[in-house]
Amino acid sequence: MAVYAIGDIQGCYDPFRRLLDTIRFDPDRDTLWLVGDLVNRGPKSLKTLRFVRDLGDSVVTVLGNHDLHLLALQSGAIPRGNRFRTLRKLLAAPDADELCDWLRHRPLVHYDKKLDTLLVHAGIHPSWSIKKALKRAAEVEAALQADGYRELLAKMYGNTPACWSGSLVGYKRLRFIINCFTRMRMLTGNECLELKFSGSPFRARKSLTPWYQAESPAWGATRIVFGHWSALGLLVLPNLVSLDTGCVWGRQLTAVRVDKRLPRVVQVEGQE
To answer: Which of 121, 148, 206, 261 has a CA 20 to 30 Å removed from the CA of 242?
Structure first.
């Protein structure tokens, strides 16, 4: 049995299927780990979401910021504007409610104890151990799966609070957790989130640090697999795998086999 982690698909169904053919994915034997952002920007979000949902237990996907935005639009938590026209077909589909209900029940993070590997869309705050990260994620997951989930989706937007505190409560606490797991890239010197920067970490000002380079992170030696950061691109290190290689921007879609000591990297051309 192989376990392949795959970067941000973002509605790029055709490259996704080419990648699965290239790695000879067998849903009866293998497992896919998807880093989130299944939808948006690419041309076939509806087809992608249907396909991933139908893979059943052979796929593990965590929620990305674009997935959460889809849920906010579909639920009526925010008005439907013209910013993301690529979601219109999905939102108008007869099975949109069913698909979004399935998506709403996906986790924010996934941890495999045997592989000592955490799957997340954007990253993990350096003050959180794996145990604490799972607890923080569970707080948001419980709210997303409760009857009042629309209010959370309406209030998750915003860049504050930027700094973590255990004393945070209510929607401010949940917003920070969501931003950390689905939007984080850079940290300030006091480990606060800098959410406006999206470029290459080599072009950031000196006062900012990529979250994964924080000093003495509480997650220790656990391997973190993530996407979200196309300007960072592919990184395959012993304790870090970055998978967003800009498929939707015409670069590549990447899979990394994570159940072997020496990871296997497979790429296909991205969306035209």
So the answer is: 206
* Nearest-5° Cα angle at 85, 56 to 249: 75
Peptide bond into 238 cis (omega under 30): no
Terminal-to-terminal C-alpha distance of the chain = 32
- Does this model's pTM top 0.90? My answer is yes
Measured CA to CA, the distance from residue 208 to residue 213 in angstroms comes to 10
Contact criterion met (CB below 8 Å) for 158 and 175: yes
Q: Where are the beta strands (DSSP E) in 121-239?
A: 186-187, 193-194, 209-210, 223-226, 235-237
List the structure tokens of 140.
Answer: 């948001």
In sequence order, which residues have a C-beta less than 8 Å from that of residue 186 and are 6 or more positions away? 193, 194, 197, 201, 204, 208, 209, 210, 211
CATH classification of the domain holding 212: 3.60.21.10
Over residues 74-124, the pLDDT tens digits come to 999 999 877 778 999 999 999 999 999 999 999 999 999 999 999 999 999
Q: Which domain holds residue 237?
A: 3-269
Token readout for 160 is: 């504050």
Among 165, 182, 69, 173, residue whose Cα is nearest residue 123? 182
Q: How many CB atoms lie within 10 A of CB 89?
A: 15
